[in-house]
User: Fold these one by one.
Assistant:
Number 1:
Amino acid sequence: MKLTSLIFLIFRSEPFALAIGFLLSYIYDFDVSYGVSIVILTIIINIIIFPLTLRQTRSTKRMQDAQPELKRIQKQYKDNKEEMNKKVAEYYKENGINPLGCIVPLLVQMPVWFALFRVLREPLLFIPKEATLYSALGDPLSVLFFNMDLQIPASAISAWVDRLPYIVLILFVVGTALIQQNQLTKKQGTTNNPQQQQMQMIGKVMPIFFGFISWTLPSGLVVYFLTGNIFRIGQQALIVRLEENQKDKEKDKEKNKEKEDQKENDEKKEGPINNTSRKKRKKRRRK
């Protein structure tokens, strides 16, 4: 698929929006509130795209681990661009690295996120008119969530007392975004790379930005932001655990291989031995 076609698909996400609108109305039919329906919908979508997220995370990590070697190649062949590109391509192939591996999964997810954003911003445009939720949204009092009308932003509320639950919701969004960013920063560690330092600085500012835009967006979207943040915190913890388990397995394989190599070397040093000696040795080992 060409990049221009993919970008067009991202912004022309109406089929996805209609499908998500139908799913949202279907969840609402199970006698749950509008807010809980948004939470369940967000979780379902995150679970569906989790394999893509996992692939994206692992590809990003491989690229980060490859940076020192890539810099060495770039420095060594800086006067020969053709040879440098050849060596980089060979390094990617040898280590199973796809330079687009951390970008393509993200681009594939974007139409879904744009569609979900559109549905929660203007639900009546995408929810089937015959659905129960469509009728319920016509009466804001019937779809309150913790005394909040999820169809309006916090900025539309005039009395500060009535704004309190909206403000608490926004603070939760900022807090969970900070926790999520702390997870990523801890994983990446300290770095002297100016680009990575700049990215980490942007990451620290983003939670405040989300809090600011949450003030002006329909509160249903804020519930979506909060649910997504909490899900990704757990998701990141799971990915870290999977990576640690994979590293432990690799270490165990290396240790077993070292033991086997050491055993073979010991046998070569001792020279040929008869069967009787082998039996005596086995008995001593058992004891």
Number 2:
Amino acid sequence: MTPSEPTQVRTNMIIDCHGHYTTAPAQHEAWRQEQIEAKGDLSKLAHRHGPQISDDEIRESLELNQLRLQRERGTDLTIFSPRAGGMGHHVGDERMNQDWSRLCNDLIKRVCDLYPENFAPVCQLPQSPGCRPEGVIPELTRCVEELGFIGCNLNPDPSGGRWTDPPMTDPWWFPLYEKLEELDVPAMIHVSQSCNPNFHFTGAHYINADTAVFMQILDSDLFERFPDLKLIIPHGGGAVPYHWGRYRGLAIDRGRLEPAALMGDNLYFDTCVYHQPGIDLMAKVVPVDNVLFASEMHGAVRCADPDSGHFFDDTRRYIETCEYLSDEDRQKIFSGNVRRLYRRLLPAIIATKTKSETAAR
């Protein structure tokens, strides 16, 4: 390749849009516990600006886990963010969550700098119950404009299962949506831990939130107000595909757009659905242009299915064996849709490849 030739990016990449740093070195979570015990007074912490974590410790935490699974399962790139359960927006106050989010996002930046061909960064927002969403804009802006992040995770329930903030279609959230449009980055709707004993956090709270937010959006004019807003509802869209007829009927009864029309260029589901019948159902009812490949690997479910011998979260298998998808559909799900949605991703990939190719000359 000569210097004048443009860098080429494979169109058949497999991009996982949903990964969390669930294996961060232990001192990362230990710092958070110290912060909580000190009630946010950083002067009481041994390392007020964050724990001491070496590059080798980061490498070890990934090589034995996410990177190993990427190689074994044949995926190319993971869109990577801090551990969702660790966001803990319901703990402490806004200042504490600002400090914690900055620390988490800086660690993700280090991961992506060490492995730029394997991970692309998405940030945690410093939300706190009752605190106006525009308070997270400085950290979002820092991550996108200074650190090169390509999106964010947005918690619709910072209270941790008590749902004390307004619905996501309320004007309360509008300043943040305006900024997301301005920065041209999507937000993945993702709750954190549940402090409500009625809702197990990964088995109930996550799915409840996904489903609740979809209904909020269905019964609103959110995308008419914000036509360039891009949102992802993970975990297969919660209960929505299974109850597609219910939501179609509710939309018709209420004079709203039906789900497929509502999603348009604004709303996407991912494939963190851990069995073949679930993926088959998504393929039959959800528009293929609105489905993003994801596994959340090394996340909520880490064991193998005793019936098949394969890991539940090895979702590539389900896409490849789904009889309701064409090869063109699979290409859209594996990379085409995510590259269209995350508009800052392709320039980041090209920059990384160009740097690698230049170094190799």
Number 3:
Amino acid sequence: MNKPKIRIMKITDILDAKLNLGMEHMDLEHEQKCIIEELKQLHREMEEDAEPEGGDVCNQYADAIHFKELELEKITRKMKVIMDKIEELENLI
């Protein structure tokens, strides 16, 4: 009968991994905040520049906003994965 291999980590390795993941998470948080500010700015500009009935300018803003929202979604997913990894490491301690 084959027993599953269990990986044993030293406490220092766990803490180092946690620290690195925490720093990566902080970087992503900063990116997330920047994108949120960019989205707010795009919405303000769209209200000023775009025609109420739509048109090319409105479509350009809509495309830019959509692109930023996709970026934000991607970063949010990465942050969730990192937090899950940090939680796993905390359970090892």
Number 4:
Amino acid sequence: MATEFKRKIMTNVPVTALPNTTNDTSTLYKAPANCDTVIIGMLLTNTSGSSITADVLLASEAGTAGPEDGTLGDENVYIIKGAQIPVGSALEVISGKVVVANTGSNAATGDFVQVRCSAASSLDIIMSILENTP
């Protein structure tokens, strides 16, 4: 199994409501085919002159079992929702580890991370990950 550390960056995070099923502008990361990824850390930075709020969503792999009833379907889980980030501040969203998975051979079926900000051109994100591929 090959492992590789990577960094994903997004500047000027969009204001589009989550989950964004219209396009990929809100998608920070999508797990590649046959890959399990560990998010090691995520830092959200307010680049504007006023306070903002931010959301980070993890949408689970298509066809995975739901957490409570075992039914099949897509599960969207907020890692953080409506988090206030004051002027000149940053927020460490993930200080532990979160797994983003894609157990299939189709890149379109894997987990993905989407982000949103309350104000346009006001939020930058840095996410550190470890990808594990067969």
